[in-house]
């Protein structure tokens, strides 16, 4: 199968116009010693039906959360994605377009980005949003580099309670830029803020905390911000957008940059991507913000329109001095988030967050009542919590699979001293019955 | 008429959402301490579902995609995005899976990633792949990190501080190099549009970490000296980075690995037909020679017997460049594309893309200045110097094309050609489409002689005219604020 | 286009000397080459700069550029009005578009700068290239 429309007649007419006798002639400048003298070694081509069959078989080898009850979270959540989201992002006017360079015929995408930016500012209570980044992990790295540019300092303090993948990504980026990354320990599931006081100095560009953190605990962000600001460092808040339906937003506790993973906003878990990195900041740091941004303006006749703006920060103008090497954003994922947040509206975003909160606390209480199970930490939490288990959590999860349940995430592979614990997440999709079933299954396992 | 924003359609009390009833005993305020609770609700719009659908459907009508018409945006490979791949990627087995599910429960996903990685190695002549980078620029950065790790492992990390980039390179190349902590050294192009070998020899020394090259380059020209270029850089201990943005020109015909490159990134969203989504998500998978494999980001998908696993145990790995494993859903579409076309199909892609570009170039040569007159590959660059004498610039030509129902080419790039227009038709366009575009370009060339002013004020048939970009940048309005009461 | 009472640098900054203080801005030629300037990144008041070091960032619609310190010293005044009105750099490069005032640490550096005649020749040469 291919998608080439030419007939052999078309082909010979075109060759004649070009003035060559064969297509090979057009490749005569490729040195023969490096030309491939064989066919690529790939499986034979497939018809559309064969392709669908083969790919469906591959898909069928995965156990899905449509068939299993999932309590997995850790940065990726099993929220319900409403039908409108799928339908809107399936409009091919959107998904088959490129980055909106020609504003006059890209108003749809540009306006939706502008709406996305407004929604993210509202949700995080910050001034400025970019048009999105790759994901939460790269968002943290970008926020750290942005802080370094703003403060002209080379040291980053990050809590060990921030998602391990995010920290690994930050360190990978930081290594090349000689950014020094310092990790702060946690105590009872929450960052030891006094330890930040000991580590922070005039060299610190920013302090990065996540709330709810990797363990689901809500951090004392206001205090951490204060500690950061005492040394004129920026405070970077990594947040989960659905939680902001009921939790204090970064703008209210003094964050300079808010960043995070937006997968919860109408984007499928999809084995980890594509997701949505978001970044919002205070107005004074606007020109140091990485990534694309859409702005409002007018045409000659006074008609309101939108375009990509502040482009002098970007790689195609600034080249080796750009604020980031990022060229694309996650526009279609940002569109999904825009539609999802508009579907929820002012009331819905609060309600979905409350459902997560209530159900997670019910699950935590029920699980804690089982013999040998207890909640590991005492800090307040949103929809995720760490359970200490009487037998190895890996064994528990294996047993739960037989009951068609995806249990929590065993934490031993991330923190060696937490090999007796697992991280459980509960979204609005989980029912009381499912939680009760989980508890019964666990009783049978220990 | 001004198109309202979703916020301007909001009415208190209206709603689109429906959520399940709370079925556990409500605890309410006890669950959170007061300091953690949001006091002021986020002012999200309050609209009905039908309002919502009409709003975004209307916005979609104010947008232009490949499904609407010809999109000859150079360097972006705006080919047709097969519908079946969208349906495949929407399968529940690919969407409703959590990245932390036990490996035994995601064997299909891991098999797909493994096979896709193997295919990408075969197509590029490389040894091992990583699918983690989310986009081309991200792949570039990752590739350079590998190069840095390689030099560091040989004790030459401090010594090799420079990355060479041709003056015709994509802007992401120098930006990525700088973000990897390298100093960027530009090398000039020769009169045939390739790398000037003498200039290259002058800048290559023991302090060079790598050369980044696109071949064919951004002029759409294949650098015949690529073997010599590779030798010059390798002899000095440097490595070669291949920017895969232009792979569509050579897939199945010549492989970067065979040309001497050590690492490349793919733009899966260009070469392998996955839609661009208005600017993302993409997939910037990389593939490397054996010398760079130990440094690949973790995890790497491996096959042990019949079992596919995620290998995190790579002591020399650079770490991770993204959360989890990359943009999996985009990989699904790219893999489906490769497997549906097979080896012959992929070769036909390159052949036809090159045929189409040369056809347009030959036919436009009479009307537009062609700065490098030789066979091009999948794209070519013309400029507006013939039209400048009537006061018509490249931007005017681009805007006039919008009125005629076409997307504009890439404009003012590469930087080495003044008033550049970079045209990439791709292989999925028919001769009739190409002819219609050529006619439009000829018409614009004629109009520039007779009605320059009409072109200078184009577009005239779009929902907005040319926008005031200077004011937008000087007084940025980046979000909506409700009007003062 | 180039006031006679100013001194000029090769990188197209102008310097107005008043005792040991020097006001610095960009020339007509510089702003013309940049096109519409849309943003500036200004240094902190009180910072010290060496001749030739980076003084400020300029963003225009088509490029990004830097202003280099034409003389060494301590920055005693910064034209923060430029942050909200970067167009002053285009519209009044020698007036309201000034960038910083530097308290010079080495007044002799002034002698190394160009006179208006020398600068005009320099511009003519660059424009011809």
Task: Tell me the CATH architecture of the largest domain in chain B.
Answer: 3-Layer(aba) Sandwich
> What is the number of independent domains of chain B?
2
> Segments of chain B where pLDDT lies below 50 for 5+ residues?
none
Query: What is the distance, rounded to the nearest whole angstrom, between the alpha carbons of the first and last residues of chain B?
Result: 23 Å
Task: Please report the first level of CATH classification, the CATH class of the largest domain in chain B.
Answer: Alpha Beta
Task: Please give the number of β-strands of chain C.
Answer: 9
Q: How many structural units, i.e. domains of chain C? A: 1
User: What's the alpha carbon Rg of chain B, rounded to whole Å?
Assistant: 25 Å
Structure summary, number of beta strands of chain B: 12
Name of the CATH superfamily of the largest domain in chain B: Type I PLP-dependent aspartate aminotransferase-like (Major domain)
Write down the secondary-structure element order of chain B.
Answer: HHHHEHEHEHEHEHEHEEEHEHHEEHHH
CATH fold description of chain C: OB fold (Dihydrolipoamide Acetyltransferase, E2P)
Assembly form of the protein? heterotrimer
In a nutshell, what does this entry contain?
Chain A is α/β, with parallel strands linked by helices. Chain A contains 13 helices and 17 strands. Chain B folds into two domains: 85-341, Type I PLP-dependent aspartate aminotransferase-like (Major domain) (Aspartate Aminotransferase, domain 2, 3-Layer(aba) Sandwich); 345-463, Aspartate Aminotransferase, domain 1, CATH 3.90.1150.10.
List its salient traits:
heterotrimer, B: 485 residues, alpha/beta, Aspartate Aminotransferase, domain 2, Aspartate Aminotransferase, domain 1, 2 domains, 36% helix, globular, C: 129 residues, alpha+beta, OB fold (Dihydrolipoamide Acetyltransferase, E2P), six-stranded antiparallel sheet, three-stranded antiparallel sheet, 9 strands
Detailed description of the structure:
- The complex is a heterotrimer of chains A (446), B (485) and C (129).
- With 446 residues, chain A is of the alpha/beta class.
- Helices cover 37% and strands 15% of the residues of chain A.
- In chain A, helix 3 runs antiparallel to helix 11.
- The termini of chain A are far apart.
- The model of chain A has no long low-confidence stretch (mean pLDDT 95).
- Chain B has 485 residues and is of the alpha/beta class.
- Chain B has helices at residues 49-61, 83-89, 92-95, 107-124, 136-153, 172-179, 197-203, 226-235, 256-259, 268-271, 328-364, 385-388, 394-403, 431-450, 452-456, 469-474, and strands at 128-130, 162-166, 183-187, 208-213, 239-244, 263-266, 286-288, 300-304, 307-311, 380-383, 410-411, 420-423.
- Chain C has a single domain (7-122), classed as RNA polymerase II/Efflux pump adaptor protein, barrel-sandwich hybrid domain (OB fold (Dihydrolipoamide Acetyltransferase, E2P)), CATH 2.40.50.100.
- In chain C, a hairpin with a 4-residue loop joins strand 1 and strand 2 (13-18).
